Structure formats: structure tokens, C-alpha cells
Amino acid sequence: MESQFGLYNVWVQGDWVTRGVAVLLLGMSLATWMVILVKAMDIVRYRKLAGQAEGFWHSADLAEGLNRLGPPEDNPFRSLAEEGRESVAHHSKMRAHLHDSLDVSDWVTRCLRNSIEHTTARLQSGLAVLASVGSTAPFVGLFGTVWGIYHALLSIGAAGQATIDKVAGPIGEALIMTALGLAVAIPAVLGYNTLVRGNKAILGALNSFAHDLHAFFVTGARVGGSESQVVPTRRA
To answer: How many CB atoms lie within 10 A of CB 151?
Structure first.
């Protein structure tokens, strides 16, 4: 005798509402895992780039330091260094118009902050999908559960008695929908929390690098170490 509690039988025996809920949960699950995989690969790559940032300060000049930071494509550390270089050049060029209202330190700070905010927005993209799935998937599964119980009650009413063959299929369908909702929501919540922690680590490294860049572009040397030693890097 074939089981009435398999996913295939739920799909075959269910109506358009049940199938719609199942398709919606499947779409949520696919979106969740796609975001998790893509963002996880980004975090791994950014951590590798963060490890190369220290080599920037052991370069002969700024041009060599930029090369040590890696390729410019989607590289927040190199973008930050280039933004700082361009901000200093722009301030020097427009000094006659800017020096009375904004000094070079404030100008570099604003430009570096804008670059970090752009990176922050890129890191956080997609996390809203995980948050939405994690908060709504259990309720979507619960809706499927309620619909399955409704079918069970209809079967009991039509049969006139609550026999196991009349209620087993709809109740099994309801339980499967509950499980599917949880199976979609749990990875979304765990993935969201893990990615948020990973993003915080990347942004922490980026802010530290920005602090050193600010000191370099304003004073000509990086402030480093507990004794405030400076590590010079000649500008290109």
C-alpha cells in the first residue's frame, strides 16, 4: 500500500492552494540558498583581500601598494585607497575654493566614509531576502497546515465519522507543510546571522584600513603600533 504522507502524494492529492504554498516555499528556499552561497563567497574573498592590506604598507610607493591590494574589480580595499588618493588630488587642485571651508583632513574623511558606506550597502544587499524569508516562511507553512486541517474537517463531515482513512491524508499534508515552513525558515535565520557577523568583520577591517589611510594621506605616514610609530609609504 502506497504511503499517503510522501511529498509526491501531497502534490498529487493537494488542490491549487496546497500546490501554490509548496511552490512558494520552494521559491523561498532557492532564494535563501542562492543568497547564502553568493554572500558567503563574497565574504571569503573579502577576507582574503583584507589579509593583503598589510602588504600595502610595505610597498615602495603608492602605485606598488595599490597593486598589492589586488585587482580593482569589486575590491573595497583598493577602492578605498584610490578614493583617498583622488580626494587629496582634488583638494589640492581646488584649494582656492575649498580651503576656507573644509581642510584636507575633513575632505579625506568624507571621501573615505562615502566609500565605506558604498561597500556597506553592497555587503548588506540580499540580507533583506533572508530576513523576510526567515520571518514569513513559518507563517506560510502554517497557512498550509490550516488548509490541510480544513480539508480533514471536510472529509470528516462528508464521511459522517472520523475514520483514519478520511483524515490521515489531509492531516499528513498539514504536518508536511509545517515542516516545510520550518525547513525554509531555519536556514534563512542562521544564514542571516552568520552573514551579518561576517560583514561586521569585513567592515571592521575596512574601517581600520581607512583610519591608516587617513593618517597617510593627511600626514604622509601611517600611524601604527601601540607606541604610535609611523610607517612611511612614498606617494606615487
So the answer is: 20
Dihedrals φ, ψ of 229, to 5°? -75, 150
Residue 222 main-chain phi, psi, to 5 deg: -85, 135
Cross-strand bridge partners of residue 61: 234
CB 36 within 8 A of CB 196: no
Sign, CA torsion 205/59/233/235: negative
Percent of the chain surpassing pLDDT 90: 25
The label of the residue with cell 593618517 reads: 215
DSSP for 27-47?
HHHHHHHHHHHHHHHHHHHHH
3-state SS, one letter per residue, for 140-175: HHHHHHHHHHHHHHHHHHHHCCCCHHHHHHHHHHHH
**pLDDT tens digits for range 115-171:** 899 989 989 988 999 999 999 999 998 888 888 777 777 767 776 666 666 666 667
Query: What is the rounded distance in angstroms from the CA atom of residue 224 to the CA atom of residue 50?
Result: 17
Burial of 78 (0-12, 13-18, 19+ CB in 10 A): buried
Q: What angle do CA 180, 185, 190 make, to 5 degrees?
A: 135
Task: Tell me how far CA of residue 202 lies from CA of 45, 65, 145, 156, 162, in angstroms.
Answer: 10, 20, 41, 58, 59
Residue 126 near residue 164 (C-beta atoms within 8 A) = no
Reduced to 3 states (helix: H, G, I; strand: E, B; else coil), residue 69 is: coil
